[in-house]
From TrEMBL:
SUPFAM superfamilies: Chemotaxis receptor methyltransferase CheR, N-terminal domain, S-adenosyl-L-methionine-dependent methyltransferases. GO terms for molecular function: protein-glutamate O-methyltransferase activity. It catalyses: L-glutamyl-[protein] + S-adenosyl-L-methionine = [protein]-L-glutamate 5-O-methyl ester + S-adenosyl-L-homocysteine. It is an enzyme of class 2 (transferase). PANTHER family: CHEMOTAXIS PROTEIN METHYLTRANSFERASE (PTHR24422), CHEMOTAXIS PROTEIN METHYLTRANSFERASE 1 (PTHR24422:SF21). It comes from Teichococcus coralli. This is protein-glutamate O-methyltransferase. Pfam families: CheR, CheR_N. Keywords: Methyltransferase, S-adenosyl-L-methionine, Transferase.
Amino acid sequence: MNAESFASIAALVRARSGIVLTPDKEYMLDTRLAPILKQEGIASLDALALRLRDVRAEPLARAVTEALTTNESSFFRDGKPFDHLRRLLPKLMAMRPAGHRPRIWSAACSTGQEAYSVAMILTDLAIRQAEIIGTDLSREVVARAREGLFTQFEVQRGLPVQYLVKHFRQESGKWRVAQDLRNMVRFEERNLLGEHRALGRFDVIFCRNVLIYFDPPTKGKVLNALAAQLAPDGVLYLGGAETVLGLTDRLTAVPGERGVYAPAIQRAAAS
Ligand SMILES: C[S@@+](CC[C@H](N)C(=O)[O-])C[C@H]1O[C@@H](n2cnc3c(N)ncnc32)[C@H](O)[C@@H]1O
């Protein structure tokens, strides 16, 4: 593929998702876009780049962008944020009026393991009345998350066996999340680069292992938008390789808690 074609596909993906593709990622285009070339009968990546210049190629542009997202996820990924959430929720609930339904957003939820992990913690804490929303740019992973059907490999990664027994049912060689847990979570397509005001305020936001794909100005913009949706005493969880440092002054690290952030003005419940 020529450099101009690479640059134009990279620019399209960046504008649509924030994901930065540097020239060393050219191999990714070869492997990830091959099925699209085949399906659409397009001869080469250069021909694809040309096709994408047509404004009528919107579905193709979407498919290309989605193919270049990385959807790696697992249940209770990295452990610590979920341990923190387990300690945080009772404190948060004690500060809310009786009957408050905690609102938790798994932004960039991929296939849903993060949102379902949160639902399992809420169940342990006997918090049945909660709102958990999982969102992702990719239509395909949102559909998979909604389905709640996981392979043996996926449930073996990070999911304690007692949770597998309690919250999953075997189905055609896979594992289906039990209906009561699925009822606690809603999944929808949403681009982190967009406007989130309509989602309302959250007590807790997970936005993990996605900012790593963005450039610093985009990270800052997304973090500010997330901060705007967070309750003043709410908490934001980022991935282990992510930070707010130098990107926004609206959020601050919770001391001694890696990957845990709070609105800069207050962090009473989080620490
Ligand atoms: C590596 S997964 C992280 C999943 C989960 N948060 C975790 O930590 O296990 C990154 C996800 O971010 C999504 N993503 C990438 N760019 C996005 C954007 N602009 N808006 C929403 N989601 C995006 C991808 O589709 C992918 O599913």
